Amino acid sequence: MNLLFVHQNFPGQFKHLAPALAAKGHRVLAMHLHPCAPLPGVELIRYPIASKPGDNTHRWLKDLEVKTVRGESAWQAAMVLRQQGFVPDVIVAHPGWGESLFLHHVWPQARMGLYCEFYYLAHGVDVDFDSEFAKPDDSNACRLQLKNSVFDLQFPRATAGLSPTHFQASLMPESMAHKISVIHDGIDTDWIAPNEGANVLLQSAQGQLRLSRQDEVITFVNRNLEPYRGYHIFMRALPALLKARPKAQVLLVGGDEVSYGAAPPPDKEGNPQSWKHIFLNEVKDQIDPSRVHFLGRIAHEQFLRVLQLSTVHVYLTYPFVLSWSLLEAMSAGCAIVASNTAPVREAITDGETGEMIDFFDVQGLADRVAGLCADRNLARQLGSRAREFAIANYDLKRHCLPRQMAWVEALANG
């Protein structure tokens, strides 16, 4: 079988699926925009951008125009592939960046499977969740209608869809929802496992600091430190938390950029600033900087050691895409305090696989984390049950990957 994966940031969600299908004997090609490390058995096709968006595009159309340009670029690369004799039986694509918009014109007989990650709603999900940042704007519905149009143009041609959580699948329009299978990307629970010997060496202004499981360590992880993932709530909880737990060390993993939502406002002088520094500055006079460590973006192996030595891990999010980091923390056996938001409720049950708080409850967050730090037995019990749940529901090799492969092969068979 000939398979074509399409993802701007390949491998993305297809990191395990594409090479597994290649290992089974299928020919697997991957079309991508950004640089990608080689994957076993996968032929990489990097397409160049064909043109530039215009300068005078209507503000609501800018997003769609950028995605149309990407669609045009991928279409041109696909035409070259067709001329070279490649004909896919199945195309598996992330439709969110537009690359797969026009591929049905190149290979009309190919069956299309779409990764249905997120469909935007003007109300009731992420856009108006946090009143601190969600400014009243009647135009949001218009803007999001056009933002969703890249999906709407592709859904009718899709044979099937794939979503990692039931919450994310529930956002899709009815025209697509009935085609979707809910299968998570999968967590390698054999590799991401508890490790009593885990330790991390930190460099700080005070010198070197080595932390282990014997220390009291509170961890917080985002791709980027920003409101969508509750960074502001966590920082506001730190003064009370550090006061309640005078020996605790806090490790924050994440960059200074923006993954989701709006960019931070400039400072009073008009200079750019980051969400990280905005909320650090808000509490800096109330916390001991020698106990709060910003690690930035770190290698995945170091990130896993951070999870493995965590006494309590905090995960906060708007009702949005579920982070891999939460499930990795569960697999590592972390005691977790998480926001009571969808889709977190699919993974965390309060008092069983973690503890849950209202997203905006700053004092409640400090109290719950401090309570688990004080009760190591309860923390270990929650972490153990979290790992059991991760193995039973999100294990890559035994659960998710076999189902994903079956999904792809079922596409080829109609």
Structural features, described:
With 414 residues, the protein is an alpha/beta fold. The chain has helices at 17-23, 62-83, 103-106, 140-152, 166-170, 174-177, 231-244, 275-283, 300-308, 324-331, 362-374, 376-394, 396-412, and strands at residues 2-6, 27-32, 42-46, 90-93, 111-115, 160-163, 180-182, 199-204, 207-212, 217-224, 249-255, 292-296, 312-315, 336-339, 355-357. Helix 7 (231-244) packs parallel to helix 8 (275-283). The radius of gyration is 22 Å and the shape is globular.
Structural descriptors:
single chain; 414 residues; seven-stranded parallel sheet; six-stranded parallel sheet; 13 helices; 15 strands; 35% helix; globular
Summarize the structure.
This protein is α/β, with parallel strands linked by helices and 414 residues long.
Which percent range describes the beta-strand content? 15-25%
**Residue-averaged pLDDT:** 95
**Spans of 5+ residues with little confidence (pLDDT < 50)?**
none
What is the C-alpha radius of gyration, as a whole number of Å? 22 Å
Beta strand count? 15
* Major β-sheet strand ordering: 3-2-1-4-5-6-7
N- to C-terminal separation? Answer: 13 Å
Shape: globular
Sheet with the most strands, sense and barrel status? 7 strands, parallel
Content-based structural category: alpha/beta
Helical percent range? 25-40%
Indicate the topology.
Blueprint lengths: L1 E5 L10 H7 L3 E6 L9 E5 L15 H22 L6 E4 L9 H4 L4 E5 L24 H13 L7 E4 L2 H5 L3 H4 L2 E3 L16 E6 L2 E6 L4 E8 L6 H14 L4 E7 L19 H9 L8 E5 L3 H9 L3 E4 L8 H8 L4 E4 L15 E3 L4 H13 L1 H19 L1 H17 L2
Helix pairs in contact: 2-4, 7-8, 7-11, 10-12
